Every structure is written in C-alpha cells, then in structure tokens.
Amino acid sequence: MPALNQIIKVIGDLAPWNLAEPWDQVGLQVGNSNQECQKVLVSLDFNHQVLAEGLEKEVNGFIVHHPLIFKPLNSITENTVTGRYLAAILKKDLFLIAVHTNIDKAEYGLNYFLGKQLKLTEMEPLEPAAAYDCKVVVFVPEAFVEQVRNAMSRAGAGVIGDYTECSFELSGTGTFKPGQNTQAYIGAPGVFERTPEIRLEMVAPKELINDITGEIRRNHPYEEPAIDIIPLLNYSRHGLGKIGVLSEPVTLEEICRSVKSLLPAKDLRVIGDLARPIKKVAVCTGSGRDLLTKAIKLQADLFLTGELGYHDYLTALDHGIAVIAAGHRSTENCFIQLMTDYLNSSFATETNFKAFASQNREEPYLIV
Fold this sequence. Notes:
This protein is α/β, with parallel strands linked by helices. Helix content is 30%, strand content 29%. The chain folds into 3 domains: 4-103 and 333-357, NIF3 (NGG1p interacting factor 3)-like (Udp-n-acetylmuramoylalanyl-d-glutamate--2,6- Diaminopimelate Ligase, Chain: A, domain 1); 107-127 and 240-326, Udp-n-acetylmuramoylalanyl-d-glutamate--2,6- Diaminopimelate Ligase, Chain: A, domain 1, CATH 3.40.1390.30; 133-232, Alpha-Beta Plaits (2-Layer Sandwich). The protein is built from 12 helices and 15 strands. The strands form 3 sheets. Strands 5-10-12-13-14-11 form a 6-stranded mixed β-sheet, sandwiched between helices. Helix 10 links the parallel strand 13 and strand 14 (322-325). Helix 6 (145-154) runs antiparallel to helix 7 (209-219). The longest helix is centred in the C-terminal third of the chain and has 13 residues, at 334-346. The two termini are 46 Å apart.
C-alpha cells in the first residue's frame, strides 16, 4: 500500500501545490506523511456525516476540497466544532488532506472536468495563472555537466509541462583568481585563470530553490560555484475557470436541462432568453463572481458558475451575457469523482489501496 507522502505527490502531479492562492490552506492538515494508506474517503467538506462514513468504511484518512483548518488556531479543544473534528481525527490516527484552489486552477482540474461534462472543446483558462517560477543558471566544467544537470533534475528543476530534464547549454570562458587559502579545482592560488565552462540553465519552482542549489553544491567540483537565480513571470497552462465551445449551438433552455441533470442541481438561477442559442461557454466551479467580467470580455454566450452576487446579475443583464448559477456545492461536487477516479487509477497496481467517493453530497441548506 502507498505511503501518505506518495499520495501527496500524486495529487501534486494533477494539481501542483504551488498553484494554491496565498491565502489558501492546502496539503496535509493532519497526519504523518510517512504513514501507510490502504483506504481513503474523498469528500467536498469534512463534517460529522463524512467522519461517520469514513469510520464505517475503516479508512485511514480523508481528502477534502474545502480545508478544515482555514484560519490560524489559538487552541484545539472539544469546545469548538473544528476542535472536535481534529480531536476525532487524531484519536483515530487518521489523516486529512485539503486540495482546494490548486485543483481549481489546475489544467485538468475541476473546471476542465466540468467543461468535459458539458462537452466543451478548445478549452483555455478563463484567467491564466501567473507562473512565478525561476531560472537557475550555473557555470560548470564540461566534464561535470551531466552530473550537475541530473542532480538538479532530481531536486525538481527542468520540468516544463510533461517534459522533464529540460535545460539549455552555452559554451563560454570562465575567469577567476583563487585566493591563497583556497583548494581550487582548477588553477593555483594567486594565479589568474581562464577555463572553458558550460552555462547550464534550468527552470525551477521557487519553493525548490534551496534544494536545487544544495544539489548543485554537492555535485559541482568548484568550492564556490557561480549560481544565478533569475525570477520569471510566465503565464502557464493552468488558471481559473475554463472557456470553450460546443460542437453545435444549443438553446439556453437545453443547456439548463443538461446542467440540472449532470451536476445534479436542484435549482438554477438564470439570466437570459431561454430560446437564445449558446455556442461559447465559460465555466467556473464554486463562486465565480470575480471571473464574470473575464467571460464578458472574451465574448462568451454563457457563464456557468456556482454562485453570484445580486449586482453580478445586473452586470450580466447590462452586457447581454447569459448566466447560470447552479449552486456552489453542485458545481464543485465533481471534485469527488475526479479525485476518486484519479487516485484509483494512479495506484491501480496497489491491490490493497482503495479510494471511496463520499455519498454526502447535499447542499447545506433546504430549498422551500
């Protein structure tokens, strides 16, 4: 059976942890990353129904979309709801992982999943994510280039999309004068030296810079390797929401019926003429009010999301865009199927591993 840190890594392959918003709390919230995991329950939230369901299935832990620990805790006592939940998890030696805005923004995350359900094609992020990564540049004697590149790759450098060990090499001449107390790999103390070197460049996530530079120093022959860290501002294939097109136009009424059936959703709040043809569709699971103007700017015929504010509906009316608000939970329930199927597929060779989909999928309120 896999260790918990393997599960965390596999989830990060789908939804890189560094995609999460700065205010978000994602990753392992409770538990030991080295513990083994045979059974896991996937749910949108953690509550007493989910806890009971997990205990009945004898799971080792829970993977949820909405974090249980969201704000700093001053104490953990059973006088609070969160405290009682945490105490129950700890008493049973269980774990809890939150996968929130990182899977909202992932290329093949919730919005892609919802778009595929609606049969959208040519999908692109509604708001592309800025990739605040770095380029690591190091100057290496030619004989050590492979060793240094391999070490950097093992530490996480050189990943571009589905490609690994990506690098660039440029030949040049390095100059230096060793000090009297140095143990120079090339040259003698006090003697100015010129030597052929390779400029080796690899992109890297900023949170791995310390690991990568540490590997460089351990594998580079120089006492003081020259290392440059260059911040980058690139736009990635990840981002919030999706916008795509239907193969054939359908009416707003037809797409409303599909949404109610697919999600499922008990009620919809709709703006627009139900006979209007819909071709270009923007989607955002959960609360999409911050992306409405993006959908308008990109000339979407329809914006499908979980919830909007009153004035957002007025904005939609003013700009002539159709809107479907299908409920926060309804649009995010796809997290359960997506994560369950993904984990079972990723660990298909682990005969003792099983991810269960929680049956607790009701909105936290009644419609009367």
